[in-house]
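Components:
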Amino acid sequence: MNALLEASRLIFDPYVLWVIAASAAFGMFVGAMPGLTATMATALLVPVTFFMDPVPALGAIVTATAMAIFAGDIPAALLRIPGTPASAAYTDESYAMSKNGQLDLNLGVNLVFSVLGGFVGVAILIICAPALAEVAINFSSFEYFWLALLGLTCAVFMTSDVPLKGITSLLFGLAVNCIGIDPAAGYPRFTFGSVELLQGISFIPAMIGMFALSELLRGMVHADATGAVIAQRIGNIFSGVFGVFKRYWFNFLRGSAIGVLIGALPGAGADIAAWISFAISKRFSKEPEKFGTGHIEGIVDATSANNSALGGAWIPALVFGIPGDSITAIVIGVLYMKGMNPGPTVFLQNPQFIYAVFIIFVLANILMLPLGWIAIKGGKQLLRVPRNVLLPVILMFCLVGSYAMTNSVYGVIMMVVMGLIGWLMEEHGFPIAPAILGLVLGEMLEQNFMTSMIKADGAFVMFFERPIAATLGVVTLLIWGTMLWRGIKGRPATLSEVAPAP
Amino acid sequence: MRANDAIAGLVLIVLSIVMIALTASFPDFPGQKYGPSLFPRILGAGLIVCGGILIWNGLTARRMGAPWVELAPWVREPRRLVTFFLVLALLLLYIFAAETVGFIPLALLFLVTLFLWLGVRPWIAAATAVVGTFTIYWFFATLLRVPLPRGWLNSIL
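Structure:
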């Protein structure tokens, strides 16, 4: 209880509240601009939060991402372009509703169910995380090895439509992570005499490169492409929303639950949660024929799911240090930089930080209602910001941000190299998320693998001797087996088949 | 631009072989079977297997008539191609000239060039570049105390 009071004291401080409000506005803006994603918002925020205490830093990231995922729905309805990939699943449906004259209802439903979905996500996070942390406190290197491997397996299983390319991307990320001092013996690997490479690839510039620079390169090339904003007055967005809730409350609960589950699975975040919950909504709907004509039902499922996925992704991130999506992957990098190694021990040693994250999530979702209303009202003006002015400024920001992380040009070099690699990978159909997960989890995987190998000393049975380790190991091997089997049979081997590549 | 999977696979295999060759010089630790070379070698082996399958898939696709290199539509439009390389050139310029020239002149050049190339009207381009550069400088150098390179303006700042 003391920790809870301490957490509130940390948050209800004018400076922290100011940071939260500013990041909320920033998140709304980035989310509403097509081509700028929630992950990019996080990567751009990190150089700024780097100079803050842990609580305002976490507050900025949590708030900005929650807002961005909702704000992505606005251009979907007005322009038929999703603001973030998380809104892509129901962009056509939203736009169809706008054309049918239901723009107000659509935006109202998106806002209210985003807020409600966010609350479900944080509620499950608050219930599950401490309970899981109590189990995790007894884990040894064997459990952590399997857990990391299971996380990486999920990343491949969830995100890539061609599993081979997902696995390649994952191995590539792990290999890049080998650069620097090795975690078991302390020997410098692949540093080629460079002092800067000794500490490994600087994580944040690499993220800015892969998530922001590669996206900006694509955006700049098509900077002249603009959509036509739908010419409809926005009226009272809240009328009729309660009726939708009464009719589709079950869809809301189902969508939120699926969102949390998919968010919590490593590698898959809000975008895949939206695709899958939309597909499930259509499959089990009483009126599937109405989907695609501007029907609200699937939107309720998917817009709840993408916001609840955000909370879900923090469960494995806080408890095991395994990111649930690419946003929490960056968060874990930030936590390490702040000397707070995520894992069950944080729950014992610094519980006030955990409670602070919970409170910020609740605050962010409360704040979303008025701010979202403002963003919707100003949506048309917001979308008039010219891309050819915006993109160069953001590029400049990336440049300075990665410079700030190392206080030298080394950060910029890292960003450019990783940005080009990320761009090339996407051009060739290699998903980026597994590589990022490999970069984040590489050290944990290798350290626990080496410790376990040395403990086992050739007796591989030891990897399966402890009950939880055995279960995790068997599940991991089963997933690999299923993927292989389905791959050989020529059937879709991964879950992402429902989510066609954009 | 999209090269055939076989090319991607070949590049991966070459890189993996280099990586594994480099691990040969890693020391072993007395009394222990597993040293710092184990993990990179496992990854290298995995990448070689993936590269092999990629080559196989790429060659199969090639026999079905897929080209070695497939160009995205925007590559054929010179204007867009120039945009792409202009961005890269400006980034490289920043990397090499930042210490001597300094942040402010380079950022101004960077923004004005990109704005004008992307078709922003000159006076808006100039005004936004000045405001943008000084806002970013104020935010990072003054507020967050990042030592942005001063270069030419060292005596003034």
